[in-house]
Design a protein that fits this description.
Elements lengths: L5 E3 L16 E6 L8 H13 L5 E2 L2 H10 L10 H11 L3 E10 L2 E10 L12 E3 L2 H16 L5 E4 L8 H13 L6 H14 L4 H13 L3 H14 L4 H13 L3 H14 L3 H17 L3 H14 L4 H13 L3 H14 L3 H17 L3 H14 L4 H14 L2 H14 L3 H17 L3 H14 L4 H11 L3
Parallel strand pairs: 2-3, 2-4
Antiparallel strand pairs: 1-7, 4-5, 5-6
Length: 464
């Protein structure tokens, strides 16, 4: 059954706190009285529905979920008014849509309310919406609450509907959304998303969330496959095109990435997806060592959204690769100060550590690397770089432990290859020739073109 939602969502006089959006920049947060087990999935549905309104710029659900966790809010639980305000401020949102969903027998009940940044939490919530389909209940709650909860006169009209899903598929989807932000449960999240898709093959949103998780896991080809399948169902989705572009960039397919990212930007329907697309376009150029084009794309992304931490971190990376350490450190520090995205925060600390390592400030390097893995404990490359810094400090045991951690994580072949080589160097230095050879060989199995490992192996075998 086709469903549409008519939204009156332009908040009078509100300009997004983040920057020059033509419409409010909004995030979705858990509302009161919802079932915590259903809340993450409900927020993902609400974000997808609201994102279809070109009058809105929508923040990413996973980012909002992480920011709430930093404020002490348990997964799926509603934030206090102060915590919701803090989340909006961190992300840079002008408003938050608070969504609640619970199962009532065979039906679902949803409610929606709105918090406008800088004002007290809305006391009036939208009327309860009831439906046998959870997606329909959320859509009706947003539609029925929009006019009473958001002031202003701008309306996006009737939006395209999301397809129906079974209760079993939705429950599995919610489980995936609940688990996908924790490195310890990402494999469980993957299984949950795959189960949701198996139960409802047309569940495009589940494919989108699974693709995002696969990107987190560094499984670029698998992520790209999910996005391509989803795009067969929603060919004009800026989010899907943007995420496919990122996967292609990581696969070093610069031309393919540029093509789909330009397509996403050209749609002009999703201002947030456009900012992400410019950032991912910059990543593609950066990997191709097209530094000036990369900087142009990153700068465009952060002008569109000044609190876009990953764009700032990528600017830092670009300057660092050109040995402009002062400018790199300034950009990375901005991402650290925002502290509104787990990946960007850990990446920025890693970059600050790398800059300090290049400048032989070993204490600062070690400190930043520890900060990076405190935020993202599965960050294998940081453990490798930490090992390098500890070795230079003379802490050989600590260095070996860090290299071993990078290898044991088994989630980044490049980081593991570097760590095997570095661990091989430690073995070589203490006279353990056979183990050193084994380490270099392990590195080359992971990264056959790694010159440092092949050179070290050749030199060591030259003594045979």
């Amino acid at each position: 059954m086709k469903r549409g939602i008519s939204l009156c969502v332009v908040v009078a006089g509100v300009v997004a706190a983040a920057g020059a959006w033509a419409a409010p920049f909004v995030c979705v947060l858990p509302g009161p009285d919802g079932d915590p087990a259903l809340s993450p999935g409900a927020l993902a549905v609400a974000e997808s529905l609201l994102r279809r309104d070109p009058a809105l710029a929508m923040a990413n659900r996973r980012q909002a979920q992480w920011v709430l966790a930093q404020a002490g809010v348990a997964a799926g639980r509603p934030p206090t008014g102060a915590q919701a305000e803090q989340a909006c401020d961190r992300i840079g949102c002008s408003a938050a849509v608070l969504v609640s969903l619970r199962a009532d027998g065979a039906d679902y009940t949803a409610r929606a309310s709105v918090l406008v940044a800088g004002q007290a939490a809305a006391e009036e919530v939208g009327p309860a919406a009831h439906a046998s389909d959870p997606v329909a209940a959320i859509a009706q709650a947003i539609a029925s609450g929009a006019e009473t909860l958001l002031e202003g006169a701008g309306s996006a009209g009737t939006l395209a509907a999301l397809p129906s899903v079974t209760s079993e598929a939705f429950a599995s989807f919610c489980e995936g959304c609940r688990l996908d932000g924790d490195p310890a449960t990402q494999q469980e999240a993957r299984a949950a998303f795959e189960r949701a898709i198996e139960l409802s093959p047309g569940f495009t949103l589940a494919r989108k969330e699974l693709g995002a998780l696969l990107l987190d896991l560094g499984l670029w080809e698998e992520a790209a496959a999910q996005y391509r399948t989803a795009l067969e169902q929603e060919p004009n989705s800026g989010v899907l095109l943007t995420n496919l572009g990122r996967a292609l960039a990581e696969m070093d397919d610069t031309a393919g990435a540029e093509s789909v990212l330009r397509q996403a930007i050209g749609l002009g329907r999703d201002s947030m997806a456009s900012a992400y697309a410019y950032n991912n376009l910059g990543v593609a150029y950066l990997r191709a060592k097209r530094y000036e084009e990369a900087l142009t794309a990153f700068e465009r992304a952060r002008r569109m959204l000044p609190r876009y931490a990953m764009a700032h971190a990528n600017v830092a990376r670009t300057y660092m690769l050109q040995d402009q350490f002062g400018r790199a450190a300034d950009a990375a520090q901005r991402a650290v100060e925002f502290a509104n995205d787990r990946w960007a925060l850990s990446y920025a600390h890693r970059l600050l550590g790398d800059i300090a390592l290049r400048q032989n400030d070993l204490v600062a390097a070690v400190g930043h690397y520890h900060e990076a893995v405190a935020v993202r404990p599965e960050y294998a490359m940081v453990y490798n770089n930490l090992g390098v810094a500890l070795k230079r400090q003379g802490n050989i045991a600590g260095a070996e432990e860090a290299f071993s951690k990078a290898i044991a994580l088994d989630n980044d072949h490049t980081a593991a290859a570097y760590a095997h080589t570095n661990r091989g160097n430690l073995c070589r230095d203490r006279g353990d020739r056979e183990r050193a050879i084994a380490e270099y060989e392990a590195a080359l199995r992971l990264k056959p073109d790694y010159a440092a490992a092949s050179d070290a192996l050749r030199k060591l075998r030259g003594g045979e």
